[in-house]
Amino acid sequence: MSTTTASLDELLAIPYVLDVRAVQREDGEWMCRVGYDELPGCVAEGRTPFEALTRLERLRVAIVTDLYERGRPVPAPRAPLRV
């Protein structure tokens, strides 16, 4: 599927590889940081994985929608690692 001919619904259904990390903030509190490397700026944090993923999903939809509406290409996801 070419992202230039894909509908917004098709682009929003693209499964990106999720990057998940536990990070310690300067105040010593641990946070869950999640992101999609292919989507610039698509990173979110939360006290729980659910909180971080909820924020990330909202951000992913906003980024993909913005790219689509501006006629910009939506980056393709990288291939998952093979085990």
Automatic annotation (TrEMBL):
InterPro entries: TTHA1013/TTHA0281-like (IPR035069). It comes from Pseudonocardia alaniniphila. It comes from the Bacteria. This is Type II toxin-antitoxin system HicB family antitoxin.
